[in-house]
Design a protein that fits this description.
The chain is of the alpha+beta class and 351 residues long. The chain contains 15 helices and four strands.
Length: 351
């Protein structure tokens, strides 16, 4: 029970690992939302500031409108900065919440103490529906500004207006916390599901390595991510077909999983792929040829110790002369040469 409550208030009903996997998606959404919201707010509040110079009903709130316009502009600039510096995203989120909460409080207490507060109540309900963060953080933020509003109301309002505003702040505050938590939970669960589907679409279900879809997509990125050199290791499993025929597909699957695990040990999971039934490709970013050769020897040794066999070819190119497609062709060519040598020395009928 406690763990469910903890996961709800901290990770919106998911778990820590799942939440961390979608953190970038949440930050990107908040950054875009902040940009749109601040743009609209700037236009609307600036319009109100202009009206306050000519329309008597708005004149009492002119200073609030001017401050709101400046704040919306600062928030807009901050949201643009978050594109380059993601750490600014949550600064912008809580600055936006704080700014517009204070804007609503100022309009409802300082400039219109005799009127029932509307803007703050709207902001109270709106903020947790716009931005995404851990439910506990959003709830604490709302509670803080509800308290600020009640204190301000007691200092500026009297009579029935005070009673109505305080009771509305509490009621709408509880509704905002509840509805905000539900909406945030739904959004985060949607991101988690989307992330899992994305992982499934790019992961080989038997071995857990990246699949061919992921391989094709990431090929075009290697020229950019490598700064010094790029190595390609092309691996083909020898004897898979014969093993399937003699001992069954389960035995073949066990062999593929074992070899995939050894490839992962040597070259990591990020740049390692199963691109066919018995073919694997790995990339070594900014590693020298000696290091690649050492890892290949260790891979072959571990595989042969288990009683399996692989054909391996590898090639390393400096970044200045790097052609990723040509690199793969050369590594594949060496693999086929190694495979040919293997079958020269191992009669198929004996296997």
């Amino acid at each position: 029970m406690f763990s469910k409550i903890r996961d709800f208030v901290l990770y919106a009903g998911t778990d820590k690992e799942s939440y961390l996997q979608i953190k970038d998606s949440i930050e990107n959404t908040n950054q875009r939302t902040s940009m749109v919201f601040s743009s609209v707010a700037f236009v609307l509040i600036f319009t109100m500031a202009i009206l306050s110079c000519f329309v008597e009903g708005f004149m009492a709130s002119r200073n609030v409108y001017i401050c709101g316009t400046v704040f919306a502009l600062v928030l807009l600039l901050l949201s643009f900065g978050a594109k380059k510096y993601p750490a600014l995203t949550y600064v912008g989120v809580y600055l936006a919440i704080s700014g517009f909460m204070l804007y609503g409080i100022a309009l409802g207490t300082i400039t219109r103490p005799t009127e029932a507060t509307v803007t703050f109540m709207v902001m109270l309900l709106l903020m947790p529906l716009i931005f995404i963060d851990k439910p506990i953080k959003m709830a604490l933020c709302l509670i803080f500004y509800i308290i600020v509003f009640i204190v301000a109301a007691f200092n500026t309002k009297t009579g029935a207006t005070l009673s109505v505003d305080v009771s509305d702040a509490i009621i709408f505050g509880l509704l905002a916390i509840a509805s905000g938590s539900i909406v945030i939970r739904a959004k985060i669960k949607g991101y988690v599901l989307e992330n899992r589907l994305h992982i499934m679409s790019e992961t080989d279900q038997l071995t857990g390595l990246n699949n061919r879809n992921c391989y094709e997509w990431k090929l075009k990125t290697y020229h950019e991510v490598s700064k010094k050199s790029l190595g390609c290791i092309y691996i083909d499993v020898n004897g898979l077909h014969d093993l399937n025929n003699t001992k069954g597909h389960k035995a073949g699957d066990e062999m593929l999983k074992f070899i995939a695990n050894e490839v992962r040990k040597q070259f990591g999971v990020k740049d390692t792929y199963r691109i066919g039934g018995d073919e694997f490709v790995a990339f070594a970013i900014d590693g020298d040829e000696e290091a690649v050769e050492r890892k290949v020897r260790e891979l072959v040794s571990q595989v042969e110790e288990k009683g399996y066999h692989t054909a391996v070819g590898y090639e390393v190119m400096n970044h200045s002369e790097l052609d990723v497609n040509q690199l793969i062709v050369q590594a594949e060519s060496k693999m086929y040469k190694d495979k040919s040598e293997y079958y020269k020395n191992h009669d198929r009928r004996q296997r």
